[in-house]
Amino acid sequence: MATVAEQIRNVRAHIPAGVTLVCVSKFQPIEAIREAYEAGERHFGESRVQELKQKTAQLPADIHWHFIGHLQTNKVRDLLKLRPYLIHSVDSEHLLQAINDEAAKQGIIQNILLEVHVAKEETKSGFTPEEISRLQPSIFHLSNIRVRGLMAMATNTEDETEIRRCFQQAHSLLGNLPIFSAGMSDDYPIAIACGANMVRIGSSIFGERDYQQSKIKNQKCQKIRAVFFDQDGILFNSMPYHAQAWVAAMGDHGLPYTALECYRNEGRTGSGVIQELYQRMHGEEAPQELLQTIYATKSQHFIRLTGGQLPETIPGVHEVLRFLHTHGVQCWVVTGSGQRNLINSLNNTFDGVFQGIISSFDVTHGKPDPEPYLKAWERSGFKKEECMVVENAPLGVRAAKNAGLFCAAVNTGILPDSDLKAEHADLVLPHMQALLEWFQQQL
């Protein structure tokens, strides 16, 4: 395996002079960051205030720390105490004002970037291009922040034309601002070609993140402040339709598939489901065009089976959500689904109780990778022991436990309880009423 220093050399060979490399060090151990430092790097990116605090105490003082994660206003004070070199993710006027006010109290001027939303995922954060144009004259009157430029993320797709569109649109809004932060490991060459002069690169330098280091052994959910709900099989009784649709779509393309396999693969992104079966059948990766075709076929079958209507909700889930909401607990949705009709209907169906939604459009790696639940946890702003997951699928349970989160599994499907217990679910319950009774005992 290549060392961090060797990986840096490989990346820098593709970065022209004048482009700042920010090594994305979130979830990486101190030793790996120190190796990058010794290779000459000085710009590092973190997404959690507490993790940044721990690392600043252990690493050299001349590191330029970039805050690149979603920032809640209740974390602004602690972040500014750490004197970040640059905050990339300022995504609202409310956050702008909070940073300015806190910077004034601390007697500093904070450099920031405005996050601009140009991707085609509705759940991504940031100012719209229209808001950026409207904001620019007024923000320069805020005396304790200095707007240095824009940050943008492209649509999560392999379509280079769409990625280029995102970066070009964001760059066109830059005006006289000096910094355009865009591009990550998968798309930074395109971003640079579109004018980016700062790139944020993690996995191409450090490899895949060491999620296991943040797993909490024998974890207890000490005080519940946020609950992350899976969608299919937990909120909607949609899994029978998904199973039938997948069996039909795979059969249409000569791939034998069963409902039981569908339930055991629940939580993967659509492309991940197809790729896993295709590789097992053919010993090679499926062509991208085939992935798109099969998933489109599956979506057509799903619409046919449901009549274009939303599936019924899982019995008892409304009562669970209302109970949590009235007790001040944040409720989030974390789903591998790409069914836009379900995702877009969530807040209407459930009376606006959800604080946020993480879907397949927001992540690079779907379940069983812990990324979806880690992203929800990061955005919640709470400690891990204050968060928990409600799942019904073995791969979802695995993702939750690999993210270091307490997980209650509600078995609403056709799998035996042993499948959920094998993935180390902390609780296995037979229905939503049992989950409600458990919450009533905890809160």
Q: Helix/strand/pairing class, anyone?
A: alpha/beta
Number of strands: 14
The first-level CATH class of the largest domain is given as: Alpha Beta
Number of domains: 3
- Rg of Cα set: 22 Å
Outline the secondary-structure elements.
Elements: H1 4-12, E1 20-24, H2 30-38, E2 43-46, H3 49-58, E3 64-67, H4 76-81, E4 86-90, H5 93-106, E5 110-116, H6 129-139, E6 145-152, H7 160-172, E7 179-182, H8 188-193, E8 198-201, H9 203-206, E9 226-229, H10 239-252, H11 259-264, H12 270-282, H13 288-306, H14 317-326, E10 330-334, H15 340-349, E11 354-358, H16 371-380, E12 387-391, H17 394-402, E13 406-410, H18 417-421, E14 427-429, H19 432-442
Parallel strand pairs: 1-2, 1-8, 2-3, 3-4, 4-5, 5-6, 6-7, 9-10, 9-12, 10-11, 12-13, 13-14
Quick structural summary:
This protein is 43% helix and 15% strand. By secondary structure, it is an alpha/beta fold. The chain has three domains: 204 residues, Alpha-Beta Barrel (TIM Barrel); 156 residues, 3-Layer(aba) Sandwich (Rossmann fold), CATH 3.40.50; 68 residues, DNA polymerase, domain 1.
Question: How would you describe what is shown here?
Answer:
With 443 residues, the chain is α/β, with parallel strands linked by helices. The protein has 3 domains: 204 residues, Alanine racemase (TIM Barrel), CATH 3.20.20.10; 156 residues, Rossmann fold (3-Layer(aba) Sandwich); 68 residues, DNA polymerase, domain 1. The chain contains 19 helices and 14 strands. Helix 12 crosses helix 13.
